[in-house]
Design goal:
The structure holds two protein chains of two kinds. Chain A is of the alpha/beta class. Chain A has helices at about 35-45, 90-95, 105-115, 135-145, 165-180, 190-195, and strands at about 1-10, 15-20, 25-30, 50-55, 60-65, 70, 75-80, 150-155, 185-190, 200-205, 210. Chain A contains six helices and eleven strands. In chain A, a hairpin with a 2-residue loop joins strand 4 (about 50-55) and strand 5. Chain A is globular, with a radius of gyration of 18 Å. Chain B is mainly α. Chain B has ten helices and no strands. At the A-B interface, strand 7 of A face helix 6 and helix 7 of B.
Amino acid sequence: MLHIDITKQLSDFELQISFSVENSILVLFGPSGCGKTTTLRCIAGLEKPDAGIISKGGQKLYASETKEFIPPSRRRVGFMFQDYALFPHMNVHKNVWYGVQKADQKAQDLYKKLLRLLKIEHLTERFTDKLSGGERQRVALARALMAEPEILLLDEPLSALDNDTRLELQEELKKMQQIWNIPFVLVTHDPREARAVGNKVLFLERGRQVTEPANWECQCPPRLQAVN
Amino acid sequence: METMIEWHPVVLSLKVAFTSIVFVFIFGMMAAYMMKTLHFPGKAAVEALFILPMVLPPVVTGFLLLLLIGKNGPVGKFLGDQFATQIIFTPYAAVLAGAVVAFPLMYQSAKAAFQSVDSKLEDAARTLGANEWRVFWTVTVPLSWPGLVAGLVLSFSRALGEFGATIMVAGNIPGKTQTLPLAIYFAAESNDLTRAGLYVLLISVMTFAMILWLNVWSKTRNRNTAGKELF
């Protein structure tokens, strides 16, 4: 379980956010620049909040009162970046193995399982510039899960993909969450995506949690809209 | 040619330049990485100090080094008292002079190269459990490789051609501290133009070949994939 209750001054407003998430997919939904990505970066330890607390299970990752701060490398919090941040100088195999601490039989089995589940077995020797958007997304997901995180953060994981690939990967994300059974926190500004993958949706506006926007229900257009 | 030129200055210059760039490579990279990641008061002043040997006349750099490592300077005194030795007027002083004047070139190249690395890739490595040391060697350095190689070649050429600072601290002892640029100057001064000319030709060809190689090498590599060859 992930619990967060933090404040952080951003350039033109203050981010104030508090939530808990069990082993399910929580979506942070809001317009660009509302503090979603900063929230994820604080959970991962890539940025420091001004005050508050972040904990994972019973372990404190950050606490302003006791000045605790665990560095990102020791948090076991996976992060999937918006443009996937795959290492361009390594092939898929090396990318996926990067986060493995101990290359034992267990890691080998996990590797095989991930490649199979994400259908990327044929890509292991390729460098990342030779992958399509959907393939990159899958490799990034495999790399993040291979490090055996206890929480996975996903920053706009599907925004760079075409519609068909996105629908396919939405389903895959849900499936992976069910298999791994850890909290996923996913950030998006796309209401359809929020609806499709989120077990719970949290609305953010200028750094504050807001109640469900009035037009939330009708914000989601049908896939094919009639053009007059 | 054997009879016309002494090979000692050539060999010494190469040795001095190679030894210098070992230090320059390590300290230049360390300084550049430190300046990229650390924020502290007076950072701009420290940075200016790093660049200073590039803009100061080499003879001034040499004079300052002389104050430092001369028999009565703090380093010279320390070496004399503790180890009963001096580096002034030895090839080690030539290495020091070469390293100091070449340092800013490596520092500048490394800094630009490190800054061009997408910080998201370094963050990704951190979230995958890599400590700062591993992030540096497996992500930052491979992705900065072309810039680091450029810095290395420029520093080497600069150290190879160093004159002003070298003559101040290493002197001009033929067969001991006389490097190639010094040999050129003293051959020309004693009107031995053939010998000076041959030395000039030699050093020009060496540096030209290195810069040419660097240009060809970097044209055929792109920033993201050059590191594949090494890592």
